[in-house]
Design brief:
There is one protein chain. This protein is mainly α. It has a domain of 258 residues. Helix content is 73%, strand content 0%. It has 23 helices and no strands. Helix 11 packs antiparallel against helix 12 and helix 20 runs antiparallel to helix 22. The two termini are 20 Å apart.
Length: 497
């Protein structure tokens, strides 16, 4: 254990990260965050070592951070395989084919958000929703004339609604556990902030749908796209079995990884119907093992889009690719982000900064809510991990909420209204990297992820005005004080022993 790191050195670590990431991602067009994260972790490590923190301790912090994100990385890998087999097997093309015919262009964005809301609420997973239905909806949106980033915004909004409202979601269970409230008390309290936010998002998507030029997509172009899909793939209702299985499997609480693996394997038998070699041989690239690893290299019919036809070129790109290797860039980004996050967490850099931020609240209810939610966003950006954005602010501000006599469900709501919902805003965060990989978009989708940025603002407004901010009774507050005394006595006895 080292000594407490001075504030100015903590700021250097954060500023270094911002500068390096800005240089890599923002200044250099098409730049990558990997190099910036390596340099930021190096600076944080040097600062930690200069203050007496041993490398072995910081290394344990890094390994702990990577371990927290290991399930996420495994899911990424499996979803990559699943996308590859679903594209090659005609599953995603079938979803797109029927979706284009069913969904009206004017209500496409609204429908995309609504469908993803329902699926994510049922499954409790924004990742499974974006990696399955989301991929198909991006293709449908392209066919209907919507930019991919606009469609992605609606998909992400819907996906994160369920991620924070479903009792099956890990973050929905984590937030009340950290704050000290109960699961269903927490979910009911979130209805007050998430409900209005979702309604606002739906209204925005309806307005965008009716006013965007994509809402009046050329019928002849839609017919051409439908013919293109049918000419290149065998299409049928049976091809929808894999996505239906994945949704049902998660609803019945089958673990995510096994459900996704089976979902990926269910796409394999349908590949034979597409004329793709199931058994490798003859040096042919398109066989099941290559597709699982590298995705579909070319369309079954060998079609190549004309260079001057941007819509068809985009469609070809959407219907090919996938595979395990398509996720390796994102997995490596997450691992490097966890190196930096693990160091700033284990050496106390993050805790020191959060303590300083808390002083800005000045003891007011509104100030406390705003500071808590901004800290969640800050941790998402700096520690690059959604779970830490709930755990760290939850631990740091729990007593502050109690001292304001605010019930624990107010804190748990704040943690989800900001920590869960903004985690995808940062390309180097596990959630941000995942959404961009699944949907193949850049950060341009963020303004259209209406729920994700409206929800924190609604929550802060409630904090300032006091709307639905329930307070403890005198008996409940006295009970909290008694529990603190018991904990202090137990800690002193343990230290003396």
């Amino acid at each position: 254990m080292g000594r407490k790191i001075p504030m100015w050195q903590c700021l250097i670590a954060i500023i270094a990260m911002v500068v390096f990431l800005f240089w890599n991602v923002m200044k250099d067009e098409g730049g990558e965050a990997h190099g910036g994260l390596i340099m930021a972790a190096l600076v944080a490590g040097i600062i930690g070592a200069a203050n007496g923190w041993k490398w072995s301790y910081m290394e344990q912090g890094i390994l702990a951070a990577i371990n927290r994100s290991m399930q996420a990385m495994l899911i990424l890998a499996v979803v990559g395989v699943m996308i590859g087999t679903w594209k090659a097997g005609g599953v995603i093309p079938s979803m797109m084919y029927y979706g284009i015919q069913i969904i009206s262009p004017k209500i496409f964005l609204f429908t995309a958000a609504l469908l993803c809301s329902i699926i994510s609420l049922a499954t409790g997973s924004s990742w499974s929703t974006a990696g399955s239905m989301g991929v198909a909806l991006i293709g449908i949106g392209t066919a209907l004339g919507f930019p991919d980033y606009m469609a992605a915004g609606a998909i992400v909004s819907g996906a994160y609604f369920g991620d924070k409202m479903s009792p099956l979601s890990d973050t929905t269970n984590l937030a009340p556990a950290v704050a000290g409230s109960t699961l269903f008390e927490h979910i009911k309290h979130m209805v007050y902030t998430v409900g209005p936010s979702l309604i606002i998002a739906f209204i925005v998507y309806l307005i965008l749908g009716f006013t965007h030029k994509g809402g009046a997509a050329d019928e002849s172009q839609i017919t051409m796209i439908l013919d293109f899909i049918k000419d290149n793939f065998s299409i049928g209702v049976l091809y929808l079995i894999p996505p239906v299985f994945v949704i049902v499997a998660v609803i019945v609480k089958m673990p995510a990884l096994p459900a996704l693996i089976v979902g990926a394997l269910l796409g394999v038998p349908f590949m034979a119907a597409q004329g793709i070699r199931i058994i490798p041989g003859g040096g042919e690239a398109s066989n099941v093992f290559n597709i699982m690893n590298n995705g579909l290299v070319s369309l079954p019919s060998g079609y190549e889009a004309p260079e001057d036809d941007l819509v068809m070129t985009k469609l070809v790109n959407l219907l090919t690719g996938g595979g395990l290797q398509s996720m390796m860039w994102t997995i490596s980004l997450i691992m490097l982000a966890m190196c930096f996050g693990g160091i700033v967490d284990s050496t106390g850099i993050m805790g020191n900064l959060a303590d300083a931020i808390l002083k800005l609240a000045r003891g007011t209810r509104g100030g406390l809510v705003i500071v808590t939610e901004l800290t969640c966003v800050f941790v998402n950006a700096i520690c690059c991990d959604q779970y830490l954005s709930i755990i760290l602010p939850g631990r740091m501000y729990k007593e502050a909420f109690e001292d304001r006599r605010l019930k624990a469900k107010n804190l748990s709501r704040c943690l989800e209204d900001s920590g869960t919902i903004t985690s995808n805003f940062f390309p180097w965060n596990t959630c941000g990297a995942t959404m961009r990989s699944f949907l193949q978009v850049n950060s341009a989708y963020i303004p259209f992820a209406v729920l994700n940025w409206v929800n924190p603002l609604v929550s802060m407004f409630y904090g300032v005005t006091g709307i639905t901010m329930e307070e403890m009774t005198e008996e409940e507050y006295q009970k909290i004080l008694e529990e603190r005394e018991i904990e202090k006595k137990a800690a002193l006895e343990a230290a003396e022993a």
